[in-house]
Structure formats: structure tokens, C-alpha cells
Amino acid sequence: MQVNRELFNEVMVPNYNPSEVIPVKGKGSRVWDQKGDEYIDFAGGIAVNCLGHCHPALVNALKEQGEKIWHLSNVMTNEPALRLAKKLTDATFGEQVYFANSGAEANEAALKLARRWAIDNYSEEKTQIIAFNKGFHGRTFFTVTVGGQAAYSDGFGPKPQDVTHVDYNDLETFAKLISDKTCAVMMEPLQGEGGIIPPTNEFIQGVRELCDKHNALLIFDEVQTGVGRTGDLYAYQGLNVTPDILTTAKALGGGFPIGAMLTTKEIAKHLKIGTHGSTYGGNPLACAVAEAAFDTVNDAQLLADVKRKEQLFRDGLAAINEKYNVFSEVRGKGLLLGAVLNDQFNGRARDFLVASGKHGLMALVAGTNVVRFTPSLVIPDEDIQAGLARFELAVADVVNG
């Protein structure tokens, strides 16, 4: 059997358009394809591979648990799930955890919990969910409706009701929308897919205060920002604003699919027995790998190093921009960075992505106007320098047509 890009078109549903490159091996921040060509990975599987490829701690956890027990169902609990939940609650505001398989599922659970909490505590009318334009919360019908990109949710028939959107960082409009009928506000503490947009202090503090005033739950979607990505274990900790519910996935398993929702006991009690569930959620294999990833990332030195590496990226991108003048700014925090294209290159982010691939660099976009970088949190300095050198060649290609 020829396993190539053509086979994709034959056997896979056409909702993706993957590159011609099929990676077969990864080590640290380097990846090799079927032909043996090498790439430096600045994409990290979209902020998932927080410890790069085949990190020994994750490989060992997978092998060890793989010899013990893989799956039970939630008729029983298991040791890795309990250990991981304890570590998550010890390290955050959260007191109780619900495990799922993805960020979308964690967000689905958060939204269902918020609605149930509001109806139980207040009234059947307290159902409004406010979210933000350009936000992204997953691809289930509920989460994609709450996400602020209509292109992803249009065309599937009637959407879940009572979801309202407002521009990120527009506190004035938000204040007019929120009311005692609002049950929850869902937001990313740094917008990812929407273009790497950080919140202003005034905005994020104001949202928290208005949620308190109107008895609405504040849900932070930390699927992309969580587990060390911004240089704090979770982004909320660097913003000094604590949500009522937090969702985490992507980097949580370091590449193994797992998601989680964290909240307080007082809120969690509204998901009574039977109100929500997941066949695979909290399975021992995923939780064992996630525990190893979490233990490795939840380290003061590693988190400080993320902030140091951020500066290496910023300095390198500034040097490239001095030569080629393609970016208006670099946004983001830690190793969730977006180089925003200036007017001359407006809408051409994909051109930079394709050119990067030709020079052996894996990068990302965030919309049509931002080149996004979400590398491993432990990427060696020399790989950052080498990757930026490859990116400079890609920039030169685009500039020179």
C-alpha cells in the first residue's frame, strides 16, 4: 500500500487540506518526513507538544501504564486520574475536576455546568452566554456557536440559543450586554485562533467585576494558554483574575488526547450523578501521560525559561523585521506569539507558512494576517536560532516574490 498524500484524498473526509509532507519521526523540536527531510518545529501541533516530540518522561509514562491498565469506564475510578486531579487542584484555584478527551469537550462540560448552575440557583430565564468575536472554543455545535467565528458555525441549521457576542477588549459594550439573565461569560485569557490578542488589564478586571455584580460565572478557556504556554502554569495566574471555571487540554497531555474542566465544589455540585459523562474521559492511559507532562511543566525554572525564550523569539523577529519590514507588531505572551503582518502584506499569512515549510520550518497562522509560533516549551536555544534563520529565508522568499 502506498501511504502518501493522494491516499488522504481517497480515504479521508475532505474537511482538512493537509500539506504534502507526512512526518514519520520526531525528537525534541525536530521532525523528519517520509523522505528523511528535517524540520524545526515552531508549531508544536498547535500548542500541544509542550515538551516536544517523544520526551522521555512521556514515553516512560506511556510504556509503564500501557503494561498496567488502559481503560475501565467511569463505573470505576483509577489511580492516574485521581493523582492528576489532585495535582491540578493543588496547583490552581480549582477544587474538583471533570476529565474529557479534548478542549471542545471540556468547554462543552463547562457550558452545560454553567447553564445548570444558573437554572438551579436562580431561574429558568438565566441562560444567556456572552462570548467574544474571534474567540475559539471548539467544534461541537454548542462550543462552535459560543465561539466568535460565524464561518465555523453557519450552515448547520438552527444554533443553540441565547448566545451573544461582543468585541474582545470592548468593556463598554460588554457592560451594556451583561445582565441578571446572563449565566456565564466565556473567554480566552489571550485569544489564540483570533490573532493572538491579549486582554487589557482594565478589560479583564472589568469582566470579572461585572460577572460578580450580575451573578454570572466567568469561564476561562485555557485550552491553548494553559500548562505553561504563557510562562505561568495557567494564564489567569499572570493576570491576577481568577475564573469560576477553567478548561484545559492541548498541552495537558503533551500530545496524548485529554481535556479537563476545573471548578469549585460549590459550582461542581450541580453536575449531579448522571447529568454529564464521557466514555473515555479520565482513562488511565491519558491521565498517566498527562501526569508526567504536568509534573515536568509545573516547575518554576521551566516556567521562567519560557519567558526567557519569549525574548529570544521577539529579538529574532525584530532583527528579521528590520531587514524586511513585514510585521506591524509581535503580540502574545510566553511561547504563544503572533507576528502581525503590516498593510503591505495584509492577508498573506499563509504565504509565509508555505514558504517556511519549504525551508524546513513548521509554523502556524492565526487568521489570514498573523504568523503564529507555539513551539515546545523546552525548545533548545540553538533550535530557536536555527528556526528563526530558516524563517528569515522564508520571509525573504515572500518579500522577493
TrEMBL record:
Keywords: Amino-acid biosynthesis, Aminotransferase, Arginine biosynthesis, Cytoplasm, Pyridoxal phosphate, Transferase. It catalyses: N(2)-acetyl-L-ornithine + 2-oxoglutarate = N-acetyl-L-glutamate 5-semialdehyde + L-glutamate. Its main location: cytoplasm. Pyridoxal 5'-phosphate binds at G103, A104, F136, D221, E222, V223, Q224, T279. N(2)-acetyl-L-ornithine binds at R139, S278. Its cofactor is pyridoxal 5'-phosphate. Gene3D superfamilies: Aspartate Aminotransferase, domain 1, Type I PLP-dependent aspartate aminotransferase-like (Major domain). It is an enzyme of class 2 (transferase). Pathway: Amino-acid biosynthesis; L-arginine biosynthesis; N(2)-acetyl-L-ornithine from L-glutamate: step 4/4. One of its GO terms (molecular function) is identical protein binding. It comes from the Bacteria. It is found in: Cytoplasm. Transmembrane segments: none annotated. GO terms for cellular component: cytoplasm. Binds 1 pyridoxal phosphate per subunit. The modification N6-(pyridoxal phosphate)lysine is found at K250. InterPro entries: Ac/SucOrn_transaminase_bac, AcOrn/SuccOrn_fam, Aminotrans_3, Aminotrans_3_PPA_site, Class-III_PLP-dep_AT, PyrdxlP-dep_Trfase, PyrdxlP-dep_Trfase_major, PyrdxlP-dep_Trfase_small. Belongs to the class-III pyridoxal-phosphate-dependent aminotransferase family. ArgD subfamily. May also have succinyldiaminopimelate aminotransferase activity, thus carrying out the corresponding step in lysine biosynthesis. This is Acetylornithine aminotransferase. The gene is argD.
